[in-house]
Amino acid sequence: MMSEILGVEKVLERLTLKRAIIEKSNLWEPIYDHIATEAEKNRAQSCYELIANNEPMAATDVGISNMTPVFITPIGCQVQYEMTGYLVSYPEIRQNYILRDCVFVERAHFFWQMIWEKEPLFIVMLTTPVNKAQLYFPANEKERLIFGPFTITCTKRDATRGYITRTLTIRYKGSEVLHTVTHIQCMSWGFLPPDAEPFGQFLDHLNNLNALWNASIGSYFPTWEMHAPVIQCNSGMGRTGCLVIINVMSRLLGDRVRHKYNIEKMMLKLKTGLPRAIETVDEYKFIVNQVIWETEKLKPEFVLGRDHMQMVTNMARTYDDSENSLEKLISSKKWIPTGAILDYKCFRKAVNMGPQYKNVGKSKTSTYTRLMS
Q1: What pLDDT sits at residue 63?
Q2: Count of structural domains, the chain
Q3: 255 assigned to some structural domain
Q4: What is the CATH number of the domain that holds 165?
Q5: Is residue 147 situated within a structural domain?
Q6: What is the pLDDT of residue 53?
Q7: pLDDT band at 301, cuts 50/70/90?
Q8: Is 103 domain-assigned?
Q9: What's the 3-state SS for the chain?
Q10: Which PROSITE patterns does UniProt cross-reference here (predicted)?
């Protein structure tokens, strides 16, 4: 199985080599389909084990141990509970996230009750509202909307080309207590995943605000819902899964954690619990490209090594869309060149991609400039 590694150069080598082989072998779609099939098998097996052990399905019906439904007891309703999202936990970085799909106006009071009770400091939205039926928050400064017993007021709005940051206050009817949450809306993600550079700027903004960190990271617990950042998308759950994996991979790199850095296995685990997470091949490609982009930004300088282009071409011939071949490409470490130093020029030539950065200095503190096409 794939070994754990440490260090930006080794991670970048592993990810870029695998991407080059997948691209050369035209295996993006077969690998994605393989992951989706395996996730469904894992989910079915988990449900079977719950039934065999007479365990309640409602408590763990998402199928994996690091994901649980988020419930509230609706105020002023006869129903006993309402599911308002999924809590997913990553112990490697001591981080919890609440994932949520579309919020419609007629049920927005359930969403805001969750925000009121769980007290997150940030809501990250990955789409623009399609219509007024999906506008669950006041869009403009000094605007106010009422959803059931909750009054939501926009007290501040800052807009850039790629995202909008709003400060929202939530007041419960009859209470003088206010809860303030920062709502960050990505504007660069349209019908197709965005390019790496504009989305990277959005990620930098999230990192500068610590938007995807637990407010109570010192008291981390895998099922702790309080203060976990909320990631929401009106187009389904696919984009939320993309952001989670990108953020986890970036945090692992930034914290210098020894890890396998296997995007496909992380997708498999997430889709086992949440089948709608990462819904298309394009989203899979987007994750790989964005993680490599973020990893490149951490690398201090280019290190030129031996020519890998022929090696990539030869390796690509050994892979096809059979199940054994796909599993080997996803999990095996045998295709990784032991001790090889990544040659960026050759790899990018192998996948018909131009280099994204160039070194403008010789020291370790040298900076990089973006190459213009």
Answers
A1: 46
A2: 1
A3: no
A4: 3.90.190.10
A5: yes
A6: 60
A7: low
A8: yes
A9: CCCCECCHHHHHHHHHHHHHHHHHHCCHHHHHHHHHHHHHHHHHHHHHHHHHCCCCHHHHCCCCCCEEEEEECCCCCCCCCEEEEEEEEEHHHCEEEEEECCCCHHHHHHHHHHHHHHCCCEEEECCCCCCHHHCCCCCCCCCEEEECCEEEEEEEEEECCCEEEEEEEEEECCCCCEEEEEEEEECCCCCCCCCHHHHHHHHHHHHHHCCCCCCCHHHCCCCCCCCCCEEECCCCCHHHHHHHHHHHHHHHHHCCCCECCCHHHHHHHHHHHCCCCCCCHHHHHHHHHHHHHHHHHHCCCCCCCCCCHHHHHHHHCCCCCCHHHHHHHHHCCCCCCCCCCCCHHHHHHHCCCCCCEEECCCCCCCCEEECCC
A10: TYR_PHOSPHATASE_2, TYR_PHOSPHATASE_PTP
